[in-house]
């Protein structure tokens, strides 16, 4: 069964695809409002899926179980990964917009899945990865394929006061990706665990450069 999701179509013929993955305990409508902020001209087709996992005692939807921050539970991670593979492949086929015209983005746990699908060794390289307050996961059975991602642009933004996911995760991702030759734009602020409005304008400009007009 396909993941539940919401879509904001482009104003005209879509020039690219932006997939926004929500954070822990949230839902598919949480980030769809960013579509008009990040893409005010409506050039892109924007999709936000709902994570498939619900957990007793926790609100909302989840992409994986968290035994330890930075280290997703392998079974639930793999299950969500497979569902996102199906969603992304289906979107590329349906819209005619391929990976080279796609940015995978998200917040918190959604950023983790954007890294995972964007860097996955069995996945095509997207045009870009937009990561708000996340990390490149360490999980049994998955390793990032960095060698084939030299043209994948990455935007990282994180708050130094984040009590949920330490800014050290962002700094580590920055070093890892930049050392591998990926073009990385990196931002820090004094924010906590949220998308800092101060980073949004930079993200909008980065997105326009990553998916320029056709």
Mean pLDDT: 97
CATH fold category name: Rossmann fold
Radius of gyration: 16 Å
CA distance, first residue to last residue = 34 Å
Q: How many strands, what sense, and barrel or not for the largest sheet? A: 7 strands, mixed
Concise summary:
The chain is built from 5 helices and 7 strands; from the N terminus they run ββαβαβαββαβα. By secondary structure, the protein is α/β, with parallel strands linked by helices.
Summarize the helices and strands and which ones pair or pack.
Layout: E1 5-8, E2 16-21, H1 34-38, E3 44-49, H2 74-95, E4 102-107, H3 109-119, E5 128-132, E6 153-159, H4 167-179, E7 184-189, H5 197-210
Parallel strand pairs: 2-3, 2-4, 4-5, 5-6, 6-7
Antiparallel strand pairs: 1-3
Written description of the protein model:
The protein is built from five helices and seven strands, in the order ββαβαβαββαβα. The chain is globular and about 45 Å long. It has a seven-stranded mixed beta sheet, sandwiched between helices. The longest helix has 22 residues. It is α/β, with parallel strands linked by helices and 214 residues long. It has a single domain, classed as Rossmann fold, CATH 3.40.50.
Any descriptors?
214 residues, alpha/beta, Rossmann fold, seven-stranded mixed β-sheet, 7 strands, 30% helix, 19% strand
